[in-house]
Amino acid sequence: MDVSLIVSNILNPPVLAFFLGILAVLVKTDLEIPAPIPKLLSLYLLFAIGFKGGVELVKSGINQSVILTLLAAMLMACVVPVYTFFILRIKLDTYNAAAIAATYGSISAVTFITASSFLTQLGMSFDGFMVAALALMESPAIVVGLILVNVFTVDENEREFNWSEVLQEAFLNSSVFLLVGSLFMGVLTGEHGWQTLKPFTQDMFYGVLTFFLLDMGLLAARRIKDLQKTGFFLISFAILVPIFNAGISLLIAKAIGMSQGDSLLFSVLCASASYIAVPAAMRLTVPEANPSLYVSTALAVTFPFNIIVGIPLYLYGINLFWR
Fold it and tell me: Least crowded by CB within 10 Å, which of 9, 26, 43, 269?
């Protein structure tokens, strides 16, 4: 394991901003970000991720390899929230179980970027259309999470389940709508659109992401004590589920013939948890869920685990499978 690479992965502005937010709360500063700003940052990040995914999809073109990869990505994004939901229901109510399940069905863009850097430093190639897989894995988990909430809260909350209302809420949810819509904008405008919006969608991205993670750090630190209520269960979940998901994804990657570089990115996508799209969506659509649970597990446990241990571990698995 390359320790210097691990350290450099941790020492990047978005990650440090997250820990700065935690520190600000721990030392009891008065640092606070006004409520409308995190929402605006969330919408920006969703748009930028979706648009870039659409552009990358146009660049790579559509062939059998691309189709199989994107289908596998969407399949994992749909399946992971379902099975993790029933695991989480052992200890949590429906709202929190669905929110955390959606979080782990979705992905972490920063972890993906870190893995890309890891591959670059190792001299391993990977395809640009994996960014499209990243964008496509955001929405299904949110949709599945919302459906799970509506299906399994009928008795507890005396809600009348209506498929049309559920689907409307799922597909016309502002986060999903913006992400998918921007993906199609990227597909339709291609390189011309990318160059036109580049100062907005690329140059500003890391700055906005850094500020967003500062807010996430503040939020996680203020409510991290709630993690103690389920303590060992959620912490174990946040470590074991990513490893399991990575194992499943590597089997799929091997079966459909992905390259080793693409396989690592695919496993990182499947093993990561969202702290951009899903928290933004859940805060808007499932306010009953406690953000400290799905933010804390994703940010305080799974994210550092993947950065420090997960990425090298998944590459080790690839080296074994691809011998």
Answer: 26
Pull the structure tokens for residue 204.
Answer: 């500003």
* Cβ–Cβ < 8 Å for 92, 154: no
Torsion sign across C-alpha atoms 18, 20, 26, 32: negative
Check if the beta carbon of residue 195 is closer than 8 Å to that of residue 55: no
- Residue in the structure block whose two tokens are 């870190």: 114
pLDDT digit string, tens, across residues 146-171: 888 888 876 555 555 556 665 666 66
Distance (Å, rounded) from C-alpha 317 to C-alpha 95?
A: 34
Task: Please check whether residue 85 is in contact with residue 282, taking contact to mean a CB–CB distance below 8 angstroms.
Answer: no
Q: What pTM was estimated for this model as a whole?
A: 0.77
Give 13-25 pLDDT, tens digit per residue.
877 887 898 899 9
pLDDT tens, position by position, 271-297: 999 876 787 777 777 878 887 788 778
3-322: CATH, from 1.20.1290.10, 1.20.1530.20, 3.90.79.10, 1.10.150.240: 1.20.1530.20
